[in-house]
Automatic annotation (TrEMBL):
Domain of life of the source: Bacteria
Protein name (Swiss-Prot/TrEMBL): Aminotransferase
Residue runs in coiled coils: none
Record organism: Periweissella cryptocerci
SUPFAM superfamilies, per the entry: PLP-dependent transferases (SSF53383)
Length: 401
């Protein structure tokens, strides 16, 4: 086994010293060693990929589609994705010049930030938020400007946005939006987006709008930021959550042609192109599975309502999710407010795994994230274990008082 030449370690990209391994992945690895665990940490659907989508992937392999595709993805997939965005969200993108097929939304996030950031640029990141945007910003020379949205129901208001822009001026290069949100499940209404667009159109600021959970909205239809600010928006979407295809790693990125041309450089230099069989499956999903998420969404809503009610009864404060499959719950007073310690103790004593809220940036400490992408059997067991934990620890607190 080769050993490291110690002097080489000082030659690495110094920006890597600004980031660490994912808290979420590290915590998952830690609790994976514990037996009899009910795991509500996973951010992926617990459903199977639709059969017609799987068959398209199998057919691609059988047909020897084994050579390099176009870097931006097969034209037929881009056409299907453009039609999906037009039909679902009233968006008008040219499949030839304004769409890129990415390796999941993750690559799209990296490509977008790497393409727009220069050293010293700043990125407005409303928190709590999916933490991936933070290290990618740092590694690409940017500085996160965190805007804690907990006091506003986890929604970035135009006043908050204006204040951040006024404070940091021309250094602001981009703002990140993620809705429906991971970790809160909160989303933005048409009025919310119009108000933000009215602020942003006054400035030369990119909007990186991650809408990967768009098909998993409940009471209201999803509205895209690109509908109100298309000239400045880099839109991210895909099939991972809508079609239970996380392992296929297919995302889509859409933007005006001149921006897409530049995005394509980072994309091309990073991954060359996506996998043919996965692209064939995604094309089938967009073409003939436009509403495949509906049965999943109905089941998620039932699960949401059950877990939400249970958490309220236990004294947790929870914003009722309007989409995705997460609940972000404030730990009740009298229990350990350090979210990592709370989560570790819960996993160790009661064998229930959730994600500490502190992993999601400023405003997240004192909260926990629960994924209800699990069966009702698992969720019922989880709530029983959480009830037992809260009851027992409240007894300890009262006794100590």
């Amino acid at each position: 086994m080769p050993t490291t030449r110690e002097s080489l370690l000082t030659k690495l990209n110094t920006r890597l010293n600004l980031v660490g391994p994912s808290d979420i992945l590290a915590f998952n690895a830690e609790i994976a060693k514990l037996p009899d665990m009910v795991n509500l940490t996973l951010g992926e659907p617990d459903f199977n990929t639709p059969e017609h989508v799987k068959q398209a992937a199998i057919a691609s392999i059988a047909n020897d589609e084994s050579h390099y595709a176009a870097s931006n993805g097969t034209l037929s997939l881009r056409e299907a994705a453009a039609n999906f965005l037009a039909t679902k969200y009233n968006l008008d993108y040219d499949a030839n010049t304004e769409l890129i097929v990415t390796i999941g939304a993750t690559e799209a996030i990296y490509t977008a930030l790497a393409s727009v950031l220069n050293a010293g640029d700043k990125v407005i990141i409303p928190t709590p938020i999916f933490p991936l945007y933070i290290p990618i910003t740092l590694v690409n020379g940017g500085t996160p400007v965190f805007v804690n949205t907990t006091a506003n129901g986890f929604v970035l208001s135009p006043e908050m946005l204006e204040a951040a822009i006024a404070e940091h001026g021309d250094a602001i290069k981009a703002v990140v939006l993620n809705f429906p949100s991971n970790p809160t499940g909160v989303t933005y209404s048409a009025a919310d987006l119009q108000a933000l667009a009215a602020v942003l159109e006054k400035h030369d600021i990119f909007v990186i709008s991650d809408e990967i959970y768009s098909e998993l909205t409940y009471e209201a239809k999803h509205v895209s930021m690109a509908q109100y600010l298309p000239a400045q928006t880099i839109l991210i979407n895909g099939v991972s959550k809508s079609h239970a295809m996380t392992g296929y790693r297919i995302g889509i990125m859409a933007a005006p042609a001149a921006i897409t041309q530049q995005l394509g450089k980072i994309h091309q230099f990073t991954i060359t192109t996506a996998v043919n069989a996965a692209m064939a499956a995604a094309e089938e999903a967009f073409k003939h599975g436009m509403d495949d998420a509906q049965p999943m969404k109905i089941e998620y809503q039932k699960r949401r309502d059950y877990v939400y009610d249970q958490l309220l009864q236990l004294g947790f404060e929870v914003a009722k999710p309007a989409g995705a499959f997460y609940l972000f719950a404030k730990i009740p007073a009298g229990l350990n407010q350090i979210s990592m310690e709370f989560a570790r103790d819960l996993a160790t004593k009661n064998h229930l795994a959730i994600i500490p809220g502190g992993s999601f940036g400023p405003g997240g400490e004192g909260y926990i994230r629960i994924s209800y992408a699990a069966s009702m059997t698992q969720l019922t067991a989880a709530m029983q274990r959480l009830t037992a934990y809260v009851t027992e620890n409240q007894k300890v607190v009262i006794a100590n008082d």
